[in-house]
Design a protein that fits this description.
The chain is mainly β. It has helices at residues 2-16, 124-127; strands at residues 23-31, 39-45, 59-64, 71-79, 81-90, 109-111, 129-131, 135-141. The chain has a single domain (21-147), classed as Sandwich (Immunoglobulin-like), CATH 2.60.40.10. Helices cover 13% and strands 36% of the residues. It starts with a helix and ends in a 7-residue tail after the last strand.
Length: 148
C-alpha cells in the first residue's frame, strides 16, 4: 500500500514539473551613489496595488554602501512576471526615507526604469518591467529630489 502511495506521489510531482513557474534573477545596478555612508534599501513589488506599500514588497534588501558610486544587488528566485523596484539611500541608517515637513525626500531615491515624478512617486506603469529570462540586468540611479 505504501509503495503505491509513493509511486503515485512521484508520478504526480513529475507531471507537475512542466507547469512550475520559471524563475529568474534581477541584477540591479544602483548608480549615482554620491556618499559612501549608510545603506541602499531596495524593495521589489509585483502588483500595481502593492507598489510602495512596504509590507507588500515581495523582497526587501539592505546593502551597505561602498566607496564606489555604484552597487550591484542580486534579487534571486523571482517567478517570471511584471515588477517595479523602489530604492533609497538610507544615509543615516535609521531604516526610513527621511522627508521634510512637506513630505519631500531628503535622502537620495530612485525607481526601476529611472521613473521620475517631481510631485510624488512615479506611477507603477512607468516603473514596471518584465522579468522573462534567467538573468535580467537593469540600472537605476538614485537622486535627490532637487536633482529631478
Amino acid at each position: 500500500m505504501i509503495s503505491k502511495y509513493v509511486a503515485f506521489l512521484y508520478l504526480f510531482s513529475y507531471l507537475l514539473l512542466p507547469f512550475q513557474a520559471d524563475t529568474g534573477t534581477i541584477q540591479l545596478e544602483v548608480q549615482n551613489i554620491k556618499a559612501s555612508k549608510g545603506s541602499i534599501k531596495v524593495a521589489i513589488f509585483g502588483a500595481e496595488e502593492d507598489f510602495l506599500v512596504d509590507e507588500k514588497a515581495i523582497q526587501g534588501h539592505s546593502v551597505s554602501t561602498t566607496n564606489s558610486n555604484k552597487l550591484i544587488i542580486k534579487l534571486d528566485d523571482l517567478p517570471f512576471g511584471t515588477y517595479a523596484i523602489a530604492i533609497y539611500q538610507d544615509v543615516n541608517d535609521n531604516n526610513k526615507l527621511d522627508t521634510n515637513l512637506f513630505g519631500v525626500p531628503k535622502e537620495p531615491y530612485g525607481f526601476s526604469n529611472n521613473a521620475r515624478s517631481k510631485w510624488g512617486p512615479p506611477d507603477y506603469q512607468i516603473a514596471k518591467f518584465e522579468l522573462n529570462q534567467k538573468v535580467l540586468k537593469i540600472n537605476a540611479a538614485v537622486k535627490t529630489w532637487s536633482k529631478q
